[in-house]
What we know:
Chain A is an alpha/beta fold. Chain A has helices at about 35-50, 65-75, 95-110, 130-140, 195-205, 255-270, 270-280; strands at about 1-5, 10, 15-20, 25, 30-35, 55-60, 80-85, 115-120, 145-155, 160-165, 170-175, 180-185, 210, 230-235, 245. In chain A, the strands form 3 sheets. A 9-stranded mixed sheet of chain A has the order 11-10-9-12-8-1-6-7-13, sandwiched between helices.
Amino acid sequence: MHIVICIKQVPDSAQIRVHPVTNTIMRQGVPTIINPYDLFALEEALRLRDAHGGEVTVLTMGPPMAEDALRKALTYGADRAVLLTDRCFAGSDTLATSFALSRAIVRIGETFGAPDIVFAGKQTIDGDTAQVGPGIAKRLGLLQFTYVAKIDSIDVDAREITVKRRSEGGTQMLKSRLPCLVTMLEGTNEIRRGSLDDAMRAARSQIVKWSAAEAGIDDLNKCGLRGSPTVVKRVFAPTTRAEKATQIDMTDKTQHDLADELIAAIFTRQPALEHELAFDGGQ
Amino acid sequence: MSNANREAPPSAGRAGIKRELPEHFRDYRHVWVFIELERGEVHPVSFELLGEGRKLADKLGIQLAGIVLGPPGEATQHAVAEAFAYGADLVYLVEAPLLADYRNEPFTKAMTDLVNTHKPEILLLGATTLGRDLAGSVATTLLTGLTADCTELDVDVDGSLAATRPTFGGSLLCTIYTLNYRPQMATVRPRVMAMPPRTDKPVGRVIRHKLSMTEEEIITKVLGFNLDRQSAKANLAYADIVVAGGLGLGSAENLQLVKNLARAIGAEYGCSRPLVQKGWMPADRQVGQTGKTIRPKLYIAAGISGAIQHRVGVEGADLIVAINTDPNAPIFDFAHLGIVTDAIRFLPALTEAFTRRLSPHSHDKLAS
Lengths: 283, 368
Ligand SMILES: Cc1cc2nc3c(=O)[nH]c(=O)nc-3n(C[C@H](O)[C@H](O)[C@H](O)COP(=O)(O)OP(=O)(O)OC[C@H]3O[C@@H](n4cnc5c(N)ncnc54)[C@H](O)[C@@H]3O)c2cc1C
Ligand SMILES: Nc1ncnc2c1ncn2[C@@H]1O[C@H](COP(=O)(O)O)[C@@H](O)[C@H]1O
């Protein structure tokens, strides 16, 4: 079985700061990580390979430094890494991103064997759109399963797959056919600690690097800014509320006095609540 | 789609250029809202979107249409009636047995066929599991722009949709345009927009469209559906009162204090993200950017610092009460009422005080 998994290198957003005057992201010194949601997909891919045999190819599109993310994925046990990198991809929105990635997946198929499953993360923490996965599926004409909580079974010979998919009020059980694209829900597994062997292999591994031309992408009008139907017009900081919270004064008060005072303040501001609570509350 | 997916920020010049809308897009008109019908129920986000769609349509002087895709039967007819009740001028309806359960293939086909036939200018969907699955496929099929998880929608002077969304974990907002493609698509998360009033309007014009697809053409089959257990189901997004705990509570055991208060006042309980990561609470109780957006009348946050990712999920609350030992905690920047005290001691006192005040004899006590 051949599995392709798309990962993205993202700035560790827990450490992102916004410049107070220019409203730009201060990237300097902010470490980059593999998009956390992609790790659930990577682990699922590795487990499937371990159970069914075959290979896992990780793919990313990004600047040359995105190689770090790929090497990290190799230390977890991925077999091969492909970096799609070219100036012409700069400024890609999700439509252009899914175009480039889908072409790269076609080239991966031609070079290393057609994939049975393509994985993507549920969403990224910087783009946070959850669209690149479905975009790739549509472009490649793959069946698509998003928010998958569990892959129940795969029969590589019969080309069958059954999955449990998260929906608003419950879980859908679906049966479908390979090849397909799956985006994994978070929390469904935990990324393994790679073995020492994998770490050594990762350090030595040759990462496949493709420019647009090498990936077989000749239609540059579909790439980067030119291939992106959306335009960012304005970036700005969220407005802060004019006043800070009214503090309930604590001096010389017991917790009980404080509680009574808070409740009085709540009902003064939201008189209707007292009435509703008297009927609904306390049960 | 978002700027953050971009490898480099776009030059200001490009964003400033107003390109001509190609000829074949000029007759795209009207605002469409996808009415999300799943397992017999309309997702309330559809009504919230009709409220927003109404405002956009009025500004543009065009019509607002609801899009109903569902199996023949009462539930689908009800969805049509509800679309009118929440402000639609007309409804496009695709009724077919194939649309009984959500599957990407027939829904994408039904929606893209409708768009190509009737040509909307703007298409809005809820950012639910269903809506996001569908929106991504539809936008890619139509090769148009899609802005995900918008928090604000508006039209600018020349009639383009200005879709604003948080980016970089809510640290910044960006306004995105789809200049020379149609329709302009956007998704919005449940509870981000206010629920519009419901009026008992008679059912208006319904335009039916056939789904040219047979079950044999659909590869994916639904084997079953497990409804979430009612008791375990958190209905945070639509709760009137939410009590939430954060890391400040110190231990999983102390979360009982949050649950006790919630029970006493008939509230739902929730938490900040680290508690989910520690396994102290299930993921569907998480409030915030990567959890639920809530819009309660009262939100009580205990031991939560108020990080931006938490804030964006609770800002729609009418009244925010924060309990935190740190007088400089960021949560006091957007809470309305604050108490600087130990939540572990204060929550039991608050629970007791509420119970006393709300008990049937409370008025006698107050009088005496
Ligand atoms: C991509 C991304 C997405 C995220 N999404 C979300 C999200 O959806 N929701 C979310 O909540 N977070 C989210 N986060 C995490 C967020 O950035 C914060 O880390 C998180 O909200 C902090 O949780 P907390 O306030 O419970 O903990 P802390 O920040 O550790 O705050 C604990 C607070 O408790 C106070 N405290 C300590 N002891 C007491 C006591 N005895 N009584 C009262 N107060 C006390 C402290 O003063 C402190 O303010 C996200 C982060 C990232 C990077
Ligand atoms: N530049 C990229 N390279 C590889 N995979 C990506 C890239 N951008 C997005 N993805 C994949 O698409 C998923 C959804 O991304 P997004 O639509 O940005 O939320 C991610 O979790 C990745 O698996």
